[in-house]
Amino acid sequence: MKEAGIERVAVIGAGLMGCGVAVEFARFGYEVSIYNTREETSRQAMEQAREALDLMAETELITGEEADGAYGRLRPTTDIAEAATGADFVHESVLEVLDIKKEVFARLDEICPPPVILATNTSGLRVTDIASATRHPERVLATHYFQPPHFVPLVEVVGGEKTDRTLVEKAARMLRGMRKRVVVIDIELPGFVGNRLQGAIAREIRSLVEQGIPYPELIDDVISFGFGRRMAYTGYFKRMDLIGLDFGYRTAQGRGIPAWGPVAEHVERGELGMKSGKGFYDWPGDSAKQLHRRLNTELIRLMKQDMEAGLI
C-alpha cells in the first residue's frame, strides 16, 4: 500500500544497497529515479534490479507481470537534479563519509522543497550532523536498511535532534505499507541498534581468534548451524521467555552473581516466560505453542535443505 502524498521516489547512490532499496519502492508501485555519478554504475544497477525482480518472480514472491511492471518504474540518471526534482521522498545511500553525505544533502535541500523527506541510509553517522548541512534539518532522518534490503524486512527509522517527529512517523508508515518490519529508534546512538549488536558479535569473534580458535569455517558454522538459526525466529527476549526466565535467574545465583535486573524483576513477580504465560512478552492461549511449532517447522526445513546439499 502506497503512502498518501508519495508517488515519486529518488534513490541517490544505487550500489548494492541503493539498488535493492530502489527495487523495493518500484515493487510497491512507486516511480523511482536512480542517481549514480557514472553511466556504467547506472547500467549495473539496472542489471542487478532485473536479476532481483526475476528471482522474486521465480520464487513466486511476485508474478512475472509484477516484476516487469516494477522494472518499468525504474529510471536511471547521472543528473542528481533530474533524479530529485519532483520527488516526494528521497533516499540517500552514498559512501559512509560525513563530508560526502553533507555535500549531497546540501544539494538535495536546494532541489527539493519542504516537506519532501530526505532520508539517509547511514547507521554509523549522526543524522543531526548530516542534517546540519541543510536549511531544513526538520525533514532529515535515517531509514537504515540491512543487506540485502529487498529481502531483509527490517528498517531502522531514526530522527535527528531537529527532525519533525510527524515525518518520522510518515516514513515509518510508508515502509510498513511496503511490508517492512520497522523499528523507530528515539535515541540517536552511533550504529543505532542492529549494527551495535553485530559489532558486539564481531568484537567477540576477534577475541576468540586472538585466543587461538580456528577460523573462518568453525566460527561461521557455530553461527549458521547453531544459535543464528533459532534467533531468526525468537530474537533474544523471546528466546529467554522460551527457556524460562527462572533458568537464567538460578544460574546467576549458582555462580554467586546477581541476576540481570529486568530478569530478576520478572522472576520475583512470578513471570517466568512461556511456562507462566508472561515474561518479557505476554503469552496468551496457545501462542507459545504456535511459536514452538513455527520455529521447529523452519528448523526442520533448513535441516532437510542442508542434508540435500551435503552440508550435514
How would you characterize this protein structure?
With 312 residues, the protein is an alpha/beta fold. The chain folds into two domains: 8-185, NAD(P)-binding Rossmann-like Domain (Rossmann fold, 3-Layer(aba) Sandwich), CATH 3.40.50.720; 214-308, N-(1-d-carboxylethyl)-l-norvaline Dehydrogenase, domain 2 (Orthogonal Bundle). It has 13 helices and eight strands. The chain has helices spanning 16-27, 39-58, 64-72, 80-84, 98-111, 127-131, 165-177, 194-210, 217-234, 237-243, 245-254, 261-268, 287-308, and strands at 8-12, 31-35, 74-77, 89-92, 117-120, 140-145, 154-159, 181-185. It has an eight-stranded mixed β-sheet, with helices on both faces. Strand 4 (89-92), helix 5 (98-111) and strand 5 form a beta-alpha-beta unit. It is globular and about 65 Å long. The model has no long low-confidence stretch (mean pLDDT 96).
